[in-house]
Amino acid sequence: MDEIEIETRVNGLARRGRVEPRLTLADYLREHCHLTGTHLGCEHGVCGACTVLLDGAAVRACLVLAVQADGAEVTTIEGLGEPDALSPVQEAFRDHHGLQCGFCTPGFVVSVTAFLRDNPDPSDDEIRAGLSGNICRCTGYQGIMKAVRAAARSTP
Amino acid sequence: MKPAPFAYHAPSSLDEAVALLAEHGDGAKVLAGGQSLVPMLALRLAVFDHLIDLGRIPELRGLERRGGTIRLGAGTTHAAVGSSAEVAEAVPLLSRATPFIGHFQIRNRGTIGGAIAHADPAAEYPAVALALEAELETVSPRGQRTIPAADFFTGTWTTALADDEILTGVTFPVWGGRSGHAIEELARRHGDFAVAGATVALELDDDGRVGRCAIGLLGLGSTPERATAAEATVTGTAIADVDAQGVGEAAMAVLRSVPADLHGSADYRRRVGAAMVARAWRRAAQEALHG
Ligand SMILES: Cc1cc2nc3c(=O)[nH]c(=O)nc-3n(C[C@H](O)[C@H](O)[C@H](O)COP(=O)(O)OP(=O)(O)OC[C@H]3O[C@@H](n4cnc5c(N)ncnc54)[C@H](O)[C@@H]3O)c2cc1C
Ligand code: FES
Ligand code: FES
Description:
The structure holds two protein chains of two kinds. By secondary structure, chain A is of the alpha+beta class. In chain A, about 35% of the residues lie in helices and about 15% in strands. Chain A is built from five helices and five strands, in the order ββαβββαααα. In chain A, a hairpin with a 2-residue loop joins strand 1 (about 5-10) and strand 2 (about 15-20). By secondary structure, chain B is α+β, with helices and mostly antiparallel strands. Chain B folds into three domains: about 5-55, Uridine Diphospho-n-acetylenolpyruvylglucosamine Reductase, domain 2; about 60-175, Uridine Diphospho-n-acetylenolpyruvylglucosamine Reductase, domain 3; about 180-290, Enolase-like, domain 1 (2-Layer Sandwich), CATH 3.30.390.50. Chain B has helices at about 15-25, 35-40, 80-85, 85-90, 90-95, 105, 110-120, 125-130, 230-235, 245-255, 265-290; strands at about 5-10, 30, 50-55, 65, 70-75, 135-140, 145-150, 155, 160, 165-175, 180-185, 195-205, 210-220, 225. In chain B, the strands form four sheets. In chain B, strands 4-5-10-6-7 form a five-stranded antiparallel β-sheet. In chain B, strand 2 (about 30), helix 2 (about 35-40) and strand 3 form a beta-alpha-beta unit. The model of chain B has no long low-confidence stretch (mean pLDDT about 95). The chains are: A alpha+beta, B alpha+beta. The interface of A and B includes residues 1, 60 and 115 of A. The structure holds flavin-adenine dinucleotide and FE2/S2 (inorganic) cluster (FES) (2 copies). Flavin-adenine dinucleotide binds near residues 30, 74 and 124 of chain B.
């Protein structure tokens, strides 16, 4: 099939690419932009590992075609913080054992970042609903709950 | 988990989309939020030669209050429906159904038109549309038409839409007066499709009788269902005399093909369904009586 030229801004940098229409945004980020922090667990919308911000809204990058993101602003886990300057959500996940193997973590951190931006002072029930779209097979979620509570307190 | 190849079209107007769909025939499919279609493509449950993206057509978005109705463009996202104060005021059931749909990341992309066209029997918006007698507006090369929700859902994932027809908007009537609205569902985990669920809208007359009511059912058939017989038995009854559990059981009596799968037998679903109707009835009645 004919490839299509797309232009996006990823973590603040302008990117141009030629993609097959069937390429997902997740594969575009991983394989064309070499941003492998966006993880792929299920590739059909169930696990949340691939969550990125598309024009600020948290979405599943495996359910967005790269061509649909033409003209959009994308933020991945790499755009949220640096190893020596973690974001408040990343910091809280580290401090409160919000991760073990780390596979699900980029998706959680991106989701929680958007969630707390829109719900700065959430109740535990709201946090649970906000986390429902991300699956973790390691932590049992309690560390993640603690991390989100702490991040909510630390972000003004 | 990679979709088979297809050609991609991104029309910027509805006319262009209709023409593309007509040109490519049944090898083509429209793409809205992609939250149901892309998984089906990834799993190769569906294969199309052409996808026509409706996401760049501004005419499909937005909502408009017109007297006794409110119209939502088919491309309005679940998130936009759920956060609209106007929708909350005009059609409380739509707002209250929204948090049950998947997760917030899904709601940021999924559209009301996509959910209705996809016609999952356990989905929330189709059940609300059916129960509230929404009107579905469409366009095709043959022109525009309006399909009553009662004629729209023809089977699991199948609708009255022709292959070359696009859903453009959904119009809901606004219930006024002393009314109450509630949705209840049981899902195995938050955000999963419901095992069974129910929506209730009811309106009281000046004497405290049920002036009218609408009971929608989800997950309890091959399409969303409406419990018209149960509605008829309670209409005209003083609200204080209505036995909510009885309404639930009456609502189950009309069901012809309750699904059975590893999440529950048909009998189990009927019991859950009756309980969901009863709970929703009580909450709606409470709201109608006390605001
Ligand atoms: C993890 C997960 C959980 C979910 N949970 C729920 C849930 O609990 N309840 C629920 O209701 N949904 C749920 N969904 C589905 C979600 O609501 C979808 O957004 C919705 O079903 C389809 O809307 P869409 O805009 O994404 O459409 P798409 O996926 O783009 O399209 C779906 C179908 O509708 C057709 N279509 C779309 N728009 C039009 C139009 N304007 N005219 C004609 N045909 C059209 C497409 O051709 C396609 O066949 C879930 C999805 C995921 C991934
Ligand atoms: S990889 Fe996208 S949701 Fe699982
Ligand atoms: S930390 Fe291993 S899956 Fe979540």
